[in-house]
Design brief:
Elements lengths: L2 E4 L5 H10 L4 E4 L2 H6 L2 E4 L4 H10 L3 H9 L4 E4 L1 H5 L1 E5 L11 E6 L10 E7 L2 E10 L4 E5 L4 E6 L2 E7 L2 E4 L10 H18 L2
Parallel strand pairs: 1-2, 1-3, 3-4, 4-12, 5-6
Antiparallel strand pairs: 6-9, 7-8, 10-11, 11-12
The chain binds glutamine.
The site of glutamine has 11 residues, from helix 5.
Length: 199
């Protein structure tokens, strides 16, 4: 399975390392041909407005949106969560998303950079010890459609959600050295998608 990390802006290297720790050789992708070739995509944390604009200027915006809608397993962390949500609140004027998850996501919901924090989360599907999560100008999920599973919440606000092949977290597991979310993406989300695809 070829996993790409969208390498337009944000913490690309950290995701590649986390995936590597899970036994997956992930590659940075930004050109149309590179994005066509991958079986799964990770969209990193960074700045969602910048990533969306760069995706337009690299000519890959519509391609990514199409591949997501066709079922490519995709994991978005923080800015990546915003980018794969169908609806965003507190967006910049004209801000676009690739869409995919039937959720309303509020940008910068936990506050500004100075309000960044860490928390121990219970994450459904990761059964052992709680997950240490780092939130940096993080979004939260305001509401979800029936087809969306909430996997983790902070103060009643969903911060990890899944809709079939799409996984999104408000926080940054790539910064903690705890790779259980990446492992969940690779071993559960991607594997289930491949099984369905090969039926
Ligand atoms: N607030 C950022 C945005 O809107 C996301 C921050 C992050 O990815 N750490 O894109």
């Amino acid at each position: 399975m070829k996993v790409g990390v969208l390498a337009l802006q944000g913490d690309v290297r950290e995701h590649i390392r986390s995936l590597g720790d899970c036994g997956v050789i992930a590659t940075p992708v930004r050109r149309p041909s590179e994005i066509e070739e991958v079986d799964a995509l990770v969209i990193p944390g960074g700045e969602s407005t910048t990533i969306a604009k760069l995706a337009r200027s690299f000519g890959v915006f519509d391609l990514i949106a199409r591949r997501i809608s066709e079922g490519m397993p995709t994991y978005g962390s923080c800015a990546g969560m915003i980018l794969i949500a169908n609806t965003i609140l507190d967006a910049m004027e004209g801000q676009e998303t690739f869409g995919g998850i039937n959720a309303v996501v509020r940008r910068n919901a936990f506050g500004r950079q100075v309000d960044s924090f860490e928390a121990d989360l219970h994450f459904d599907g990761i059964t052992e010890a709680p997950l240490r999560a780092i939130f940096i100008r993080a979004p939260w999920v305001e509401s979800v459609g029936n087809e969306v599973e909430v996997l983790a919440s902070v103060d009643g606000h969903p911060v990890a959600i899944r809709q079939g092949n799409l996984l999104a977290t408000s926080f940054h597991p790539e910064l903690t050295g705890d790779n259980r979310v990446h492992r969940y993406f690779v071993d559960t989300v991607c594997k289930e998608a491949m099984k369905i695809g090969s039926r």
